[in-house]
Design brief:
By secondary structure, this protein is mainly α. It has 4 helices and no strands. The radius of gyration is 19 Å and the shape is elongated. The mean pLDDT is about 85.
């Protein structure tokens, strides 16, 4: 996950000229915006993985193996 964040930030910084034309009121290299987006997407990713993992821990192992 961390490698994906690093690659995404590097690519976004490389494309600042194209991104700058689409943004209004925020610079293309605004560190607060990058930080907010990284934190938000990381939280969503962790939550998306945590919910199914929590459900899976509540299933009896033997019961799960019998159904397969």
């Amino acid at each position: 996950m961390i490698a994906g964040v690093v690659v995404g930030v590097v690519v976004a910084c490389a494309l600042t000229h194209a991104i700058g034309k689409l943004l209004m009121g925020v610079s293309a290299t605004d560190p607060a915006t990058y930080t907010f987006v990284v934190v938000l997407l990381s939280a969503v990713t962790l939550l998306a993985g945590w919910i199914p993992a929590r459900r899976a821990t509540r299933v009896e192992t033997v019961q799960a193996l019998r159904t397969e």
